[in-house]
Protein 1
Amino acid sequence: MYKIKKALNSQKVAPFVFVLPFILSLLIFWAYPLISGIVMSFQNIDFGVKVWVGPAHYLKLAHDKFFRIAVWNSIEYMALTLLLMIPIPLLLAVLMESRLTKAKGVWKVIMYIPALTSVVISGMLFRMMFSEADGSQMNRLLEWFGKAPIAWLKSKPTAWVALLLLCMWRWTGVNILYFLSGLKSIDDVLYEAADIDGASARQKFWYITLPLIKPTTIYVVTISVYAGLAMFLESFMLWNGNSSPKNIGLTIVGYLYKRGIEKNDIGYACAVGVILLIIALAINTIQLVATGTFKKEER
Amino acid sequence: MKSKKILAAATAALMAFSPISVMAESTEASTEASTEGEATAVTTVGPENGTKFEMWSFVDVHNEFYGKMVDLWNKQNPDKPVTITFTTYPYSDMHNKLMMSLQAGEGAPDMCDVEIGQFPNYTGENCPLYPLTDALAPYEDKMVKSRLDVYSQADGTRIGVPTHVGASVMYWNAEIFEKYGLDYKSVKTWDDYTKLGEQLKEASNGEVYLTSVDTGGTDWMWVAMAEYGEDWTGGPDGEVNVELDSVKKMLTMQQQWLKDGIAMVSTDGHVDLEAGYKNISEGKIASFPKAMWFMSRFVNYMPEMKGKYDITTIPVFEDGQKCSVGIGGTGTVVTNQCKNPELAAEWLTWAKCSKEGEEHIWNDLGFDVCNKSLWSDKAFAYDKSNVYNTFFRVMPYEVLNELADKDAIGTVYTTSVSPTLNDYINTTTLNEVLEEGKDVDEALAEAQDYVDMEIG
Amino acid sequence: MTASTAKVRISHHTAGTIISTGLFAIIGFFIAFPLVAGLLASFHPGRELVQNGLSLNLDFKTMTLNNYKYLFGFGGGDSKVDSAKYFLWYKNSLVLTITTVILTLLVCYFVAYGLTMYNFKLRGFLLFLVIATMCVPFEILMLPLYQEVTGMKLINTNAGVILPGLCAASTIFFFRQYMVTLPRELLDAARIDGCSEYGISVRIMMPITKPAFASMAILCAMGSWNNMLWPMLVFRDAKKFTLQIGLNTLLTPYGNNYDLLIAGSMFGIIPILAVYLLFQKYLIEGMTAGALKG
C-alpha cells in the first residue's frame, strides 16, 4: 500500500495521473467518433446502409468551385479576424489595466455582454442595422455623411464590414478577458524595477508586457485560427439562413451543412470536415512550432 | 496531512470516473421523481392504458393541435386509445436530430413533422419511414392530390400526411388602388398587371411600387412554372431543367418592371422578413403573390392592415392557364422505429385529414386545408368567428373555391435536387438577373451547368 | 462622472486619462447601442420591432411590460409560451451550466498541471493532441458520438451532455499557457517541505492560478449557457430542455414569436452576467508580488 502511494507520488508517475482524464476522454469520446468520421468520409451513408466510395467525395470537393469560395472565404475571414482581434483587444486590455482608465468595471461589463446575447437575437439586431432599407442605422449614417443608401449585405466589401463588426462586437470583450488574466500573471516587481530604471510606458510595453504575455497571445491566436476557419453562425445570423447573395458569406462549415447535412449526405459532410481539420491543424501546428510552444523547455 | 494527501490523490485520479456514475444516477432519479410537479412542461396527452407514442414537431402550436386530436380520438375510439408525448424542437435542429436518430437506427420518435424542403432526404431506397398509402386510402379522393404527391416516393407510395395546400394567391392593398382610382380586380393576365403597374407609377408619382420581386426566394418562379405546367426539378424521376420558358418569361418580365420603375427588389431578398412586412404595412408596395399561409403574417405582424387588403387569384401569362401552386408545407411521418405503426398511421391520417382535424387546422392554425370536400362546406369555410374571414376583404375560401372550380392549382415538386437548385437560384441567379441586370438566358444556362455538375 | 474625477486629480496623467477613458466610452457606446436597442425592443410589441426596425426611441407611452408578463405567465390566456416551461428551461440551464463549469475547470486544471509542471517523454505529443482536438469540427463527430452516447445509455441525461466535453481542450490549453509563465521553483520548495505532488497542485498552484480560473469560469459558463447543438441531440424530453433550445423553438417557418424571443433572451443574460460579476474580482486580484519572487 505504502509502495503504491509512494509510486503514485513520484515525479515520474504523477504527471500521468494528472493527464489521465484527458487520455481517457480522448480514447472514449474522441478516438472512436473521429476515426468513424474519417471512415465515413469515404462512404455513402443512407439510413444505416453504408457503401464504400473511396476518395469520391474528396474528388468532388476538388472540382467544386463553391467549395473553393467557401475555403477562401473562411481563410480570409480567419486572417482578418486575427489582424483585428489580437492587437486591438491586447491594447485595450493594457489600457484597461493602466491607471489611466476610469470606470473600468462599466466598460468591461459592456464589452462582455454581447458574447452573452443569444445568437438569434444578435443576428437579428445586426441584420436590422445593416438592412438595405433607407431607415436602417447604417444607411442613416451614410445619409448623415451625404451618401446614398446602399444594400450592405448584398456585396462582399460592405457585407464583410458587417460580418467583421459583428465578430468584433461579440468577441472583443472576451479576448480582452483572456489578455487581462494573462497580464495578471506578470509579476508587478518587473514593472517596479523598470520604473526605477526610468523606463517609459512604451518601453515597458515592448520589453515586459509583450514578451511575457506571449503564451496568452499564442492561446488567443490558436483558438482564433480554428474559430475563424469554422465560422458559420455569424454568417447564418446575418443573412437569416445559410444562403447569401452570390455566396459572399459562404464558409467551410456553412458548405458542410448546405451540401452535407441538409442533404442527408453525411459522408460528404465528413469529407468537408476532415479538410477543415487538416487546414486548421496545419496552420496551428506551424504557428505553434514557430513560436516554440512545443519545445521541451520553455524558459 | 496523510488524509489530505489521499484525498488529493483520489480526487485527481478518480476525476474521470466519479462524475459518470454520480450524474447518471442522479439524473435518472430526477426523471422519475419529477413527473408530477412539472406536468406543464412536458405534454403527454391520453390515458394511462393508451398505446404510447412519441411525436416531434418544430412548431409548438402544431403539437397543441395534435394534443386536441388525441383527446378527441380517445373519446371516439375508446377501444384503441392512444397516448402521445409531444416535444417541440427548434426548426433546423429538429430535422438534424431526426436525421441523426434515423441514421443511427435508434432514438427516433414514432411520429414527426417534416418540413417540405427536408422531405427529399427521407425518400429513396432505404427510406426510414412507414408507408401511409393504406392509412390514407379513406381520404385519398377528398384530398388535394398534388399535396399528397409531394410527400410520396417516386413509385407513389405515400409517406407523409400534408398539413395545408399553401395555395399561392395575389395579395392586394385595395386601399391604395382605391385612393388612385385604379381597378385591380379586372387584372387577368400579367400584361394587365404590368399596365396596372404603369398606371400606379404615374398616379403615385413613383412612390408606390406595384410589387417587389424576390432575389432570395423562388415563389415567383414557382407560379410561372405552374402556369405553364413546367417543373424545373423534372418531378420525382425526371431531369433538372432550369432553362424553362416559364422561368425565362417571368424573369424577363421582372427585369423589365425594374427597368421601368414599376417594381422594386424585395428588401433583404423576399417579403416574408421584417423589412418586407414594413414595405407592406407602409404601402411601399401595393401587391404581391404569396401562399395562403402568409395571411397569418398580417394578423401577427400587421394587424393595422385589417380591412385594407384583398386577395384574388394570381394573373396568368395566357388565358386558361393554372394560376396557383402549393408552396411550403409540412408532411407528418411515421418512422420505421415506431413499434405500433398501423395505429399511429390510422390516428395521424385521421387527425390531419378528417373533418374534425381540418376544422382545427383552419381555425387554430389558419391554414388552407387539403381536404377539398370541406372547402364548399359553409359552416366550415365561411364562419365569421374565424379571424381570417373578417380580416381581408374577401373570405379566403372564396378564392380557394375559385381555384378549385378552375382546377387551377398546379404542382412543382420538391425533390432531392431541390436544395442544390434552390440554393444556386437564390444565392446567384436571381441576384445576377434582378440586381445586376444580367442576361436571363445566360444566367439560367450557368445555373443549369452548375446543377448538372453538382448532381452528375 | 469620469470627467469630474479626472479634473479633481490633477496630474500629468490627466490628458491620458481623458483620452483613454474617452476611447472606452466611444467603444462602449457602439457596443451598447444594439444591446440597448434590443432591450428597448423587449418593452415593445414584437411586431413594432419587425416593422420599424431598431430605434432608441424612449417613449414611455408606447412601452409595455406585456412581453415580460407573457414570459412570467401573467399574460393570462393570451400567453404564447408556458411560463412554467420558461422557468424550467432556465433552471435546467443553470444546473447544467454550474455542473459543467465546476467539473470542467477541475478536470482541465489538473490535466494542464500535469502537462506543464513535469518534464516527461509524452508531453509534447500530448500537447499536440490537445491542440489537435481543438481543431476537430464537431460535425464530423456528431453521428458516431450520438451512437456512442446512446449505446452508453447516457442519452437524455445531463451526463451525456457534459462528459464528452469535460476535457475541453481549449480550457486545458489556456491553463497550460497560463501556468507556463509561473516559476516552477515554488514546487521544489514545497517538495522539500514534504508536500505531495497532488498537494502541491491543490495548495500551492491552484491559488496562484486564480485569474485563469476566473476567466475560464466566465468563458466556460458562457459556452455552456449558449451551447445548443449537442444538448439538443442528447435531450429528448422537453422537461430537460435548456433555455437556448426552448427559446429557439419560438422561431418557426410559420412565423417567429419575436415578443417572447427578445424578452426571453434579454432576461436570459442575467445569470451569466452574474457569473461574470462574481468571478471578475478574482481577475483583478492577480498575483501578489511578494509570493513569487525568484
Protein 2
Amino acid sequence: MTMYDFAYSRPSSLDDAAAALSAHGEFKLLAGGMSLVPTLKLRLARYAGLLDLGGIAALNGIKRDGDVLVIGAMTPHAVVAASAEVARAIPALASLAGGIGDPLVRNRGTIGGSIAYADPAADYPAGVLGLDATVLTSRRRIAADDFFTGLFETALQRDEIITAVSFPVPRAAAYAKLPQQASRFALVGVFVARTAGGVRVAVTGAGPAVFRWRQAEAALERRFEPAALDGMALAADGLNSDFHGSAEYRAHCACVMAKRAVRAASS
Amino acid sequence: MPIVSMTVNGQPVTAEVEGRTLLVQLLREHLKLTGTHEGCDTSQCGCCTVHLDGKGVKSCTVLAAACAGATVTTIEGLAQGDRLHPMQEAFREHHGLQCGFCTPGMIMSAVDMVNRMGNDLDAHTVREQLEGNLCRCTGYHNIVKAIQAGAAAMKGR
C-alpha cells in the first residue's frame, strides 16, 4: 500500500510545533503513528504534511505530583504499563496500557496519540473518562467529560497540541475489556473508578465514542459491588453493531465487563 | 525530500527518502536488507519487526524520516560474524519455523520480549507476548519452545 506523499517535519520544541501547525492549516500531528499511519496507508485520510512530535523530549515522561499522576502525551503504552510510579498510583491504568494492541504497538503508540485519534474502540479513552482526568494542551486544560465529543472527534482545536494527561489518583479502579479477537481493540471495555467525586463508569467500544454509564454509576454509588448491577441493562439504542457483535450483544457485555471491573476494583 | 541518517546494524547510513517512505521500505529497497519481511502491510503480522533504539517495532508502520538519528537493528544485525545469536540458534535447534517467512519478525520480537521480561519465560507468557506476530503455517508450538530456550540461552549476555 502506498500512501499519498506528504511533507514531513520534526519540530524540536512545543513552540515550534505550535507555530508550524498554525502556519500550515492542512498539516496533521503525528505521535506514535500506530493508528494514523495505517489510516494513511488505506488512503482514508490525506494531509499535506505531518508534524512529528517525536523529537520533543518534554512531551515524554511520567510524574507523580501530589494527588495526581501526570503522563506526558508522547509516553508510549509500554512505558506506562511497566512504570512503577503508575503501578503504585493507578495500577488499573498500567494494566489498561499493557493490554493495548500487542507489545510492538505498545512500544510505539502513545497516550496522546490514542486520545487525539479517539478511536471508538480504543482503551485509553475509557481510562481518561473513568478517572476524571484532565487533558493538558498547548493552550488550556480540558476535562475528560468535555474532551470526547463523537466518533473520532474531540474538543481539540485544529492547532492545539496535547502535552499531557493529568489523572487524579482514585481510591480504587479497574478496567475490564472484551477484546475483539483479531485486533485486540475493545469490543467492549469498561473502566470503573471510585474517585473523590463519586463512582465513575466509562464504556468504550460500545458506542460511537466513549461514554459514561450513569445508571450504573448511581447503583454503584449506593453499593459498590458487582451485585449492584444485577438486572441492569445498558440501552442498546445507538450502540455499535457490526459482524463482531450486535448492539444488544455489546449492551449485554458492558454489564458483564462492568461487574468484572467492580470485582477487580474491590479486591 | 527529507534526508535521513541513522545507524543500521552498527553502520551509519544516509538516504534520501520521501515523507511517506516507511522504515521497511528504507531497509529493503534502499539498503537491500531483505531479511526484514513485509507480510500483511497492515501492522498485524509482525513479519517486519525490527528494533528501533532497542525496542521492537513494526517497520511497516514507522516512517523512515521519523528514524533520523536512531539506531536500528534488523535480523541481519543479530549474528556476530558466523556465530548465530542465541535466539537464532534456538529457532534452528527447535525447528521454530516451517516456511520461514515470519521467522525474522518472530526472532526480533522474541529478543525484544527477553529484553522486556527477562530470561525465564513460561509458555503462557511467550504466547501472550507473541500477540503481534502471526505464523500462517501455525507453527507456534515450536516457536514457543524456541523462544523459551533462546531466552534462557541469552542469560548473562
